[in-house]
Amino acid sequence: IGAETGQDVILPCQTPDNNPVIVIQWRRNDSVSEYVLLFRDDQLDPDNQQPTFRNRVDLLFRPIKDRNASLVLKNVTADDKGTYECRVIERDPKRGQRAGLTSEPVSIVNLDVVPPAQENIRAETGQDVILPCQTPDNNPVIVIQWRRNDSVSEYVLLFRDDQLDPDNQQPTFRNRVDLLFRPIKDRNASLVLKNVTADDKGTYECRVIERDPKRGQRAGLTSEPVSIVNLDVVP
């Protein structure tokens, strides 16, 4: 299965029989002791879960239906690449006991994660231009970072605490950039760049931090951009 960074993806798994499911285990091949997801006693069990997957995974259906034990992985990053295995324990209807968890997975899924498709935009000098970016989820946005690939330490635009932050902004972009919508709506974190010049050519990257609705805390800023835009400026 292939996915772009920032997307949500479903890793398919089907239970062996139509018996009641007691346990579902999802693991990645790089971890023996920790789970991607553990479902037992009709609920998710966060114990021994790999920290990077917390609050980003769930089963497609809870309660399980149609023998579907597929995993939903949200806001994928390059670090999520790997081979995922699904194992299942079902109740034995004849004895009313657990059918043993086999050592063999019932599903093996290879996940490949690639950067988001780059968008090419051309503008004439003096025009205003919109560089598109969409947040990964519909959660409240805490931080939006726009950078150009020629600067590591300075921003094109930094939005945090519900306002623009001019600190560490590249001087050439001051008073020429804004977000398309403030406050953010419809997951739109697009950048408006006014009065473009030939010096504005380059590749722009958008990164986002959202609030985790389950914990009320920040969801980590991934190292991967959610949008990459190549801007060309012509006379």
Please give a structural write-up.
Pfam families: V-set (PF07686). It is found in: Membrane. The chain is elongated. The strands form four sheets. Strands 1, 3, 4, 5, 8, 9 and 10 form a seven-stranded mixed beta sheet that branches. Strands 11, 13, 14, 15, 18, 19 and 20 form a seven-stranded mixed beta sheet that branches. By secondary structure, the chain is an all-beta fold. Helix content is 0%, strand content 41%. It has strands at 2-4, 9-11, 21-28, 37-40, 43-44, 57-59, 71-73, 82-92, 97-98, 107-114, 119-124, 129-131, 141-148, 157-160, 163-164, 177-179, 191-193, 202-212, 217-218, 227-234. The protein folds into two domains: 2-114, Immunoglobulin-like (Sandwich), CATH 2.60.40; 119-234, Immunoglobulin-like (Sandwich), CATH 2.60.40.10.
Key terms:
elongated, Immunoglobulin-like, 0% helix, seven-stranded mixed sheet, mainly beta, Ig-like_dom, single chain, 235 residues, 2 domains
Task: Explain briefly what this protein structure is.
With 235 residues, the protein is mostly beta strands. The chain has strands at residues 2-4, 9-11, 21-28, 37-40, 43-44, 57-59, 71-73, 82-92, 97-98, 107-114, 119-124, 129-131, 141-148, 157-160, 163-164, 177-179, 191-193, 202-212, 217-218, 227-234.
Helix and strand content put the structural class at: mainly beta
Taking the sheet with the most strands, its summary is: 7 strands, mixed
CATH C-level label of the largest domain: Mainly Beta
**CATH topology heading of the largest domain:** Immunoglobulin-like
CATH structural architecture of the largest domain: Sandwich
Order of helices and strands: EEEEEEEEEEEEEEEEEEEE
Low-confidence stretches: none
What's the helical proportion of residues?
under 10%
Number of strand elements: 20
Number of domains: 2
Distance between the termini: 43 Å
